[in-house]
Amino acid sequence: xxxxxxxxxxxxxxxxxxxxxxxxxxxxxxxxxxxxxxxxxxxxxxxxxxxxxxxxxxxxxxxxxxxxxxxxxxxxxxxxxxxxxxxxxxxxxxxxxxxxxxxxxxxxxxxxxxxxxxxxxxxxxxxxxxxxxxxxxxxxxxxxxxxxxxxxxxxxxxxxxxxxxxxxxxxxxxxxxxxxxxxxxxxxxxxxxxxxxxxxxxxxxxxxxxxxxxxxxxxxxxxxxxxxxxxxxxxxxxxxxxxxxxxxxxxxxxxxxxxxxxxxxxxxxxxxxxxxxxxxxxxxxxxxxxxxxxxxxxxxxxxxxxxxxxxxxxxxxxxxxxxxxxxxxxxxxxxxxxxxxxxxxxxxxxxxxxxxxxxxxxxxxxxxxxxxxxxxxxxxxxxxxxxxxxxxxxxxxxxxxxxxxxxxxxxxxxxxxxxxxxxxxxxxxxxxxxxxxxxxxxxxxxxxxxxxxxxxxxxxxxxxxxxxxxxxxxxxxxxxxxxxxxxxxxxxxxxxxxxxxxxxxxxxxxxxxxxxxxxxxxxxxxxxxxxxxxxxxxxxxxxxxxxxxxxxxxxxxxxx
Length: 560
Ligand code: ADP
Ligand code: MG
Known about the structure:
Layout: E1 5-8, H1 11-23, H2 30-50, E2 65-70, E3 75-80, H3 87-95, H4 101-108, H5 113-123, H6 130-133, E4 134-142, E5 151-156, E6 161-167, E7 173-180, H7 190-201, E8 208-211, E9 224-226, H8 243-254, E10 262-268, E11 274-280, E12 297-301, E13 304-308, H9 310-313, E14 322-327, H10 336-340, H11 343-366, H12 368-382, H13 385-388, H14 393-399, E15 403-404, H15 416-421, E16 430-434, H16 438-442, H17 448-453, E17 458-460, H18 463-472, E18 474-475, E19 478-482, H19 496-520, H20 549-557
Helix pairs in contact: 2-7, 4-5, 11-12, 11-14
Bound molecules: adenosine-5'-diphosphate and magnesium ion.
């Protein structure tokens, strides 16, 4: 072997290792789920790269994962014949944490071991969970397609540093050897390992094999057996899949520790054949508001994993949807560029959007409690919908929930249909007010006249609300009107008495208005006697076609 080099872990890795080892003792078996999921990813990646370059298989195209233990040596070994890593890959992947999620992860640790353990998979810091059970970890890896002499051996005790050396590795792929801590004997047991694999990794679509347990009577070493189901759950018929199986599958694809809120499983046959299995989670991922986050819906072509890519398969306003789409018709070597303008993908996407909207609609109708919980978790994301998906904006609008003066509560539970049902007899518009916060909206001086007349107003306290209603424009033939815009014409809502009084006031204040116009000059467009205010002496309004005040502030803050 070439000379051995010692390198330091990045600070974050050291922090993480420390936390992991000290706080996750009670969930120690998750190390196996994490290492198997990495092995499975590595096989998926090889399969994908080999679509362009068959030689990467090096004559061995039967991809799989192997788990073994050695009582004497006190080791558990997880190996795969996937893509493997070269020296730079190893330094990058096992010595640093490239993802921004790690700091979030560390911040979110609660000290509650069960909860913290569940965060691990979600944050993609899985490999380091090896150190929960191992006092020393060895990784032997060789990248597919490089010579056997370019294997890499990585080793660490998880304290502060690791060593690297170049070694000869005839076999492509990765082998992770865990030298167990003294109190981890339970994993030197074939039944315990099988149980953990079946609990967490049953739906991995590759075979996970283990040597058969020896009975002590055989002459030769017993052969291997496949431990997991190793079949693509989504290909089975709905009626044969139990809720528990759907939930377990969801947890695996979404890296979630809780089951989903609901799921949609459809098989489409005909011109375009595909299967989709889509889930709406219960909880939001930590990076929900990162609009670039990948990992939403995974694309498969004839059972082969192609890529995880939220954008081409789901619009951004549905980026919380998780699951898989498996197409029979796309070419296996489909690239990201190709997906962008692919008519089949477009069709699959619009049908999938429709399914999600259908499900949300029926949930809103039939399971109001579930819908309320969905809304409080993902409502803010759905509000991006009218701007992004013009074609579906009426349907999205039906799903929106707002706060309003009807309850004056911050809980968003008023639909536009609720609002319309409560409109005054001659009311033709849906009124809303926007502000920087709910309480500012609720206390807006613009509302005085509306409250006095008993006209409901939607209270929008989030910039995305304004974005949303501006793009919506109208719903069910009713204009959405900002209470602060232009000349408030409450039209037929005024009674005759009010009108007479208004004219009287206007004449009375004419001299004052003229003086104010003189004083304020160019700083305002004009000064009007207002009938909106009943308690406050004055307020700012904007012209009908200008952005409302808070939007102007937002744009200013963003440098416009
Ligand atoms: P994640 O799987 O979320 O990326 P991990 O900590 O589990 O995070 O793994 C870090 C990285 O190490 C992986 O993204 C991958 O690039 C690399 N890696 C880990 N295990 C393997 C393996 N068995 N084969 C190839 N690469 C691996
Ligand atoms: Mg991983």
